[in-house]
Amino acid sequence: MLPSVGPDGIPLQMPADAGNEGFFEVPGTDGGILKKILREGKGDATPAPGNMVSVHYTGTLQSDGSKFDSSRDRPGTFEFQVGIGQVIKGWDQGIVGMKRDELCILRCRSDYAYGASGSPPKIPGGATLDFEVELFDWWEKEKDIWEMSTQEKVEKAEKCKDEGNTKFKAGQFDSSIVSYDKGLSYVKDIFDDVGGGLPEDAVLAQPVAVALSLNVAQAKLKGNGDLKSAIEDCNFVLKLDPSNTKAFFRRAQIHTKKADFQSAKGDLQKLLEIDPKNSDAEAELKRVTVNEAKAMKAEKAMFSKMFS
């Protein structure tokens, strides 16, 4: 026999009997969730607790059919992790029994929905709710970074680097920054508090961390990125590899764009100490020197005009 009151003593609004209107009881719910299939799904597989699912839904009051919410009124599908309490209990227990492309109605008694308090103003306390749910797909939720091994972090970072490179080559500099920064978020913390010698996990992550940092600095230089943070990206590389000529060259370019010609020349001179035959650095140093002279001449002319 089904309970007539909830745990708090509030009378429950009971859903229609199982079998009525084509509904049947979802196993293990004591009649708290009834289901009616509107369109059969494909295959036999169903999502497991912990999976991410993609759905569309429309929620109505069972008492009068009035709509209180629908994902179809918003762009995109609704995605959530099923079975961990992110949504009402009726969804957590009802959606795990759905197949891909299935369309159904889940009728959720109030103790499987919003309980005695409801969700004012649209959902009164003790209300039974109908949800028309369409399940599109499900997939395993990506691990949180803290759950990943170093190898998994490196693989994620490599994928982001490849995505960023594709965007960069297409001239999508600002979009590539997003990909590169996401890649760095997987591996940069590995290098926190690293002293003299790098531990094994840092050695594994260093190549992709260096590549991502140099690439994102270049993207910020080419696009509308923050030049101060681009310098910090180069500084990070030089912390890991003090003789990295690409980092000195990139940082010099950024200093030049900021009209900090002295810092730019300093970086290029350090680069040439490491690699005296670097023709790109020699050419860049000449260019910076010329630009500095032009800037000084223009500044002198401006001051002469001001005080003439």
Instruction: Briefly note the structural class of the backbone.
Output: alpha+beta
For this structure, what is the CATH homologous superfamily of the largest domain? Answer: Tetratricopeptide repeat domain
SS elements, strand count: 7
What is the CATH topology of the largest domain?
Answer: Serine Threonine Protein Phosphatase 5, Tetratricopeptide repeat
Level-1 CATH class name of the largest domain? Mainly Alpha
Q: N-to-C terminal Cα separation, in Å? A: 100 Å
Largest sheet: 7 strands, antiparallel
Round the mean pLDDT to the nearest integer and report it.
90
Explain the layout of strands and helices:
Elements (H helix, E strand, L loop, with lengths): L23 E2 L7 E7 L11 E11 L5 E4 L7 E4 L7 H6 L8 E6 L20 E12 L9 H20 L3 H15 L12 H23 L4 H14 L4 H13 L3 H14 L4 H29 L1
Antiparallel strand pairs: 1-2, 2-6, 3-4, 3-5, 3-7, 6-7
Describe this structure in words.
By secondary structure, the protein is an alpha+beta fold. The protein has two domains: 20-140, Chitinase A, domain 3, CATH 3.10.50.40; 145-307, Serine Threonine Protein Phosphatase 5, Tetratricopeptide repeat. The protein is 44% helix and 15% strand. The chain contains eight helices and seven strands. Strands 1, 2, 3, 4, 5, 6 and 7 form a seven-stranded antiparallel β-sheet that branches. α3 (173-187) runs antiparallel to α4 (200-222), α4 (200-222) packs antiparallel against α5 and α6 packs antiparallel against α7. The longest helix is centred in the C-terminal third of the chain and has 29 residues, at 279-307. The N and C termini lie far apart (100 Å). The relative contact order is 0.08. Residues 1-19 have low confidence and may be disordered. This is peptidylprolyl isomerase. Keywords: Isomerase, Repeat, Rotamase, TPR repeat. It comes from Guillardia theta (strain CCMP2712) (Cryptophyte).
